[in-house]
Amino acid sequence: MRLPLIAGNWKMNTTVTEALALVQSMQQGLDGIKGVEKVVCPPFISLTAVAELLKDSSIELGAQNMHFENKGAYTGEVSPLMLSGLCQFVILGHSERREHFGESDSVINKKVQAALKVGLKPILCVGERLEENEAGRTIEVISRQIQADLKGMTSAGGLVIAYEPVWAIGSGRAASGEQANDTTAVIRKLIAGIYGDEVAQALRILYGGSVTRANIAEFISEPEIDGALVGGASLSAEQFLSIVEQTASIKGLR
Fold first, then answer.
1. CA distances from 244 to 16, 141, 164, 236 (A)
2. CATH code, domain with 119
3. Is 61 in a helix, a strand, or coil?
4. CA-CA distances (angstroms) from residue 108 to 54, 66, 197?
5. In whole angstroms, what is the distance from residue 116 CA to residue 119 CA?
6. What angle do CA 193, 197, 202 make, to 5 degrees?
7. How far, in Å, CA of 29 to CA of 4, rounded?
8. Where are the alpha helices (DSSP H) in 36-94?
9. Residues 224/191, Cβ–Cβ less than 8 Å
10. What is the per-residue pLDDT across 45-92, written as a single tens digit (0 to 9) for each?
């Protein structure tokens, strides 16, 4: 059985004070939920303060991005070594990074490898744009991204993949549970082709894209979906708690 995972991506929201208040408002409730791995991903400026707050908690911490070099003349960037020991997860390849900051699959590949090298668990995001979906190219796009993002990697240990259709992110238009499950099954098959069936069956694949407390049950009830990468709803303690509670009720390991 794969341990379900719910991760909240706060994106460019919350000051340090607001981040601490948000964590405090949900910490007790989340700590009381068993059988689900719970991760919050605040902005870089809040990681140290939130890490201190969560040091005796079951809630884990993730960063939203990182550079692939450990150090160097990369003004404004944050390295794998800076994150190692501070957080457990890092989101890589998010469509917003691909679209707004021009991140290529080759750059994402370097980032995934660099994260694993220092013991961070990458949440690798893949997904198709609306025009690609409507043209029936979803599997083609996902396959290309998976192959390129994992190129040269001999192991997938610690890796998490998030299927995030670009057209569903922040749009309020989520994929259907059946559609998300079918694409997730293809991703698992691709991983099996690269690393073998045992690795593929152990790897967790999340769904992301307009996930809310109103629709989480539709996704988490599907057999191939192991959790969710939650955007806007993770900025509400009430919503995020409900998403984790429902996940524990439906799929949580006892």
1. 24, 30, 19, 12
2. 3.20.20.70
3. strand
4. 29, 10, 24
5. 5
6. 120
7. 17
8. 47-53, 80-83
9. no
10. 999 999 999 999 999 999 999 999 999 999 999 999 999 999 999 999
**Which of 146, 179, 124 lies closest to 7 in space, CA to CA?**
124
For 124-173, the pLDDT digits (tens) are 999 999 899 889 999 999 999 999 999 999 999 999 999 999 887 777 77
Active site residue 100: no
- Measured between alpha carbons, how far is 162 from 112 in angstroms, rounded to an integer? 13
Q: Which of 164, 218, 222, 224 is catalytic?
A: 164
Quote the CA–CA distance of 175 and 208 in Å, as a whole number: 9
Residue 66: Cβ-neighbour burial (10 angstroms; 0-12, 13-18, 19+) = buried
Our answer to whether residue 94 is catalytic in this structure is yes
Q: How far apart are CA 201 and CA 135, in angstroms?
A: 30
This prediction has a pTM of 0.96
> What is the tally of structural domains in the chain?
1
**Do 113 and 68 touch, CB atoms closer than 8 A?**
yes
Catalytic residue among 60, 94, 218, 245: 94
Give CA–CA dist 105/89, Å, rounded: 19
Closest by CA to 60, choosing from 91, 81, 82, is 91
Strand partners, 2: none
Residue-number span of the structural domain to which 203 is assigned: 5-251
